[in-house]
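Need tokens for this chain, all 459 residues.
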Amino acid sequence: MLYEELRAAHEDIERLESGIADRILDDPKAQRARLIRDHEVASLLHRIQNQSQRALQLYAQDEARMQEVQSLSTGDPFDEFYKQLGGIKDYHKRYPGQPVENPERMYRTEAQGGGSFAGDVDGMFTGEEAFGRFFDLTMLHEEYLNLPGVKGKRKITYLQYLDQFDKFSGPQSSISRQEKMTEEYFSYVGSLAQYLESFLRRTKPLEDLDRLFKTFDQEFEKLWDEDKIPGWESHAQTNGATSSGPVTEGTGEGVWCPDCEKEFKNDNVYKAHLGGKKHIKNAEARQQQQQSAAEGESNGIAPAGPAGVQRLKERAVAEREHRIRKLASTMKTEREDTRVNVERKAGMTDRERQQELAALYAEDDSGLPNGARNGANGGGGNNDDDEDDSDDDSKIYNPLKLPLAWDGKPIPFWLYKLHGLGVEFPCEICGNYVYMGRRAFEKHFSEARHIYGLKCLGI
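Here are the structure tokens for all 459 residues:
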């Protein structure tokens, strides 16, 4: 039966390849339909890998294959045939209710009468994520507001958090280096990195993400060995720059306290805080770390005491921060779309949000096969009535010539006025091209048209 298993494995691989080709040729427009297609292809590719590994294991059994060839070539071939036939009959007697799968239809698409291999795509995303269009960082935003160094200060809005959740150093970060060593912060950056990694895996199942994450780790190892991770430089290296009193850092306008890692508006405020308990505690801890690092360098070995353990903890936190920065830069489009979506939803009523959600599901259902779409709608129904409804929906009333939203319908007039979409902004560098609204005008500075105009002017 060894050769029969090999033949079945090769046949299954060919059918899997055919099923993948059928799905690749299909190019759905709806986001949900594309995700289903991609996850189905990823599932079929995983099956090809399993079958290929099984075939390689069978090919490695040289002695068993030689014995099977000898048993078929020597002796009566009918004896071997009836022996295998008896084994098949015994199997079906033991399992009489075993369902029989049709290999012809096993890997067909749903439109061709096959099954789905994508799993529960609807359950992979929250309503806020809209099938991978936007981030849903509301819970992480709440967790961030309760971190040491943030709690008790002026709360940042969700929009501000979307802009700076990957900023861990400099004036945009209100959390000091010592406050980052708490369990709460370590858990927070771990949850944030895990969410971004999970979001990328759910939205891009066909990409080789393990290789991408491996490059992130290699880049971190290199930067850490060179002591170039922002905000996590070793104390021994920064000793010469921080031992001579206050240094102006941060925004470059105030007075920087290296012990508290905080910027003060003027020298009087800086001097007033020097007698505080928090500053004295931070200064003593920093001095102890510098002494431990200096002793380790003088002995020619890395510190293995408390300073060495502290450096290992810093490395673990810095590694998570680095991964968050790289993941955020990989998903710039989703991040910007999330920001625009949050701004847009802030001016909507609850009824408008419900209508938008219903339109989202209606758009995604339109990209599904007929059988799946009828099943989602409860099956049956009058097709003529559906066609009449679609004809009515296609006639959009738009006397004010308002811009169309993502669902193909004009945006509300108040939203049109709110964003100033009726105001013209011409750009001379782009050949007096007119942009409607300040947001579109500011956004075009990084577009190809404006950059090409700057190059033509020699800028």
